[in-house]
Amino acid sequence: MHLTRFTDYSIRVLIYLAAKGEERSTINEIASTFNISRNHLMKVVQELSQKNYVTAIRGKHGGLLLTRDPASIRLGGLVREMEHDMSLVECFHEDNACIITPACRLQPILNDALSAFFTALDRYTLADLLGNQQPQLAKLMRIPTVSA
Amino acid sequence: MHLTRFTDYSIRVLIYLAAKGEERSTINEIASTFNISRNHLMKVVQELSQKNYVTAIRGKHGGLLLTRDPASIRLGGLVREMEHDMSLVECFHEDNACIITPACRLQPILNDALSAFFTALDRYTLADLLGNQQPQLAKLMRIPTVSA
Fold first, then answer.
1. End-to-end CA gap in chain A
2. Which CATH number does the domain housing residue A12 bear?
């Protein structure tokens, strides 16, 4: 059981932006900080922007900013929005070929467990991900504006 | 987020054996019922046997039987045992290269959610997967001994 890299990277982008506070960031600096592909990160940021987590400001002094307060970004909601395919097993798919599906209770039972997963995750926000480690995180990410 | 086919198939094997009751089953009949690879299923059954869910009896009148009562097989425990890799994101891996891991709270938060997932799943047993649908399931799986 895994989350996608797409979801993983979207969490890293938000942590980066939260640690940087009101300073704008670029995709290049985030890609270089985490040593991940700039192209992949562009798609992640595009989706974070479409889903109103991130604002991309164009122009010479442009860059990325968080759209919302980190304490208002619930992690369950974020993962649900970024994780495109929550089909835990074959019977969740439209092209399911498992012959016992009409009488099997696996799907509702797994949905119950999935719901418990997201309820637990929704108890935390982006602010909790940083906790009181914000200065230490900024240092690890070499964010000059915070450690200066 | 997905469970592996390995886990999915292990659940199907246990449902089949539970619906069949005290009659022995063969890998061939389960593979043909679910239209899945016999080779893949052999590995699944081998692991179910190693983990004491299934007993394989050799010989002419041999076959597979459930080792335990379906009402005593908790689904959280089963999925935990069959799902080999529960590394939700990169920082769960030994070769993790994410530079913020020393100060980041993602791992404990995701572990909390994972724990809620398994606690919810452990409220159900193999017997709950069949519920009162056992005759219907046996019919869908064309198990003659039950529908006779």
1. 40
2. 1.10.10.10
